[in-house]
Amino acid sequence: MSLQRYFSPAKINLTLNVSAPIVVGEKYAGYHRLDSLVAFTNDIGDYLQFSPSDKCELLITGRFADSLDNGENNIIIRALRLLETHIGQSINVKIELEKNLPIASGIGGGSGNAAAVLIGINQVCELGLGVEVLEAIALKLGADVPVCLKGLPIIMRNIGDEFAKAPHFPNLPIVLANPLVECSTPSIYKKFDEFADFDFCEFDFKNTNSLDEFCNHIAHAKNDLENANFALYPQVAQLAADMKTLNGVKLVRMSGSGGSVFAIFANADYAKEGAKTLHEIYNKQIWAIAGTLAGNYE
Predict the structure, then answer these.
(1) Based on the domain organization, do 186 and 244 belong to the same domain?
(2) Do 150 and 277 reside in the same domain of the chain?
């Protein structure tokens, strides 16, 4: 086994349409169907490193290390155990996680970590597992893990296990921010169901040739979970409102079930200024960082 380091980027739901709960008697009863344009950051994320060991161990460093335990409930260890079950033998490896993304923040931190484990250990341990096998294991870990396994702009549908080609759009200067409040995804979906404001449809995504054209296009979409999150976590609603006042901002929206909010800016300089302004507004009591969301122009 050779020492290798893997980047686990933040996952952003640029749009997120959510159905009413799937009815009892149907496959995936109780789940919700999704329609979401997903993209990943080039430069904001966690890092994982794998190295030989005489036992399985997980070491966690980084700003948000204290928010995680390194035991069997950690999604990284769960991913490892599923790989072991599939191949029928133990995998002794030391996994080092540099945790830079906030916990329970709607940007796929844990899901991305699990995907990196599936990809990384398959490679460094030369397991030889194909994409379909990894995707099947990924779905057992959570609805966001299969899309994180792909790591490219894509449309996610059904319960996160079906995909469609993403429209063309350019790289996007962004600020990601979080009020450092861990948001409970089950609680947010429960509140969403209580509101019963269901208007599910698949958005008609179009190819766009500029940042402005893209922002104008997806402004007609939405994140259906925003109202439910904002009702439970007013700090997230306030952060989104403050981000809309920043210079050069083109679009502000919550990602996933929250509470991270992203803002797309006219250029990278405005994004850097926006992150700095947010730290000043909140006296550095939030997480805010400027970076780039990877587009897919060929």
Answers:
(1) yes
(2) no
Let me know if 11 is a catalytic residue.
yes
Could you tell me the CATH number of the domain that includes residue 172?
A: 3.30.70.890
- 60 within 8 A of 70, measured Cβ to Cβ: yes
Judge if 36 and 152 occupy the same domain: yes
Q: Which of 11, 35, 46, 99 is catalytic?
A: 11
DSSP state of 223: B
Q: Residue 58 in contact with residue 9, Cβ under 8 Å?
A: no
The single-letter DSSP state of residue 180 is S
- The enclosing domain of 143 has a CATH number of 3.30.230.10
Both 8 and 150 in a single domain? yes
Full-prediction pTM beyond 0.85?
yes
Do 26 and 277 touch, CB atoms closer than 8 A? no
Residue where the block lists tokens 């030989």? 52
Range of the domain at 62: 4-164
- Catalytic, 144? Answer yes
**Average pLDDT per consecutive 10 residues, the chain (298 residues; last block may be shorter):** 82 97 82 96 96 91 93 95 96 95 94 97 93 94 92 93 94 97 94 94 94 97 97 98 98 96 98 98 95 88
Q: For residue 101, give the DSSP letter.
A: S
* Contact call for residues 212 and 250 (beta carbons, < 8 A): yes
**Residue 2 tokens, joined:** 């050779």
280 inside domain: yes
Instruction: For residue 115, give the H/E element and its range.
Output: helix 109-124
- What single letter denotes the amino acid at residue 228? A
The catalytic position among 35, 46, 99, 144 is 144
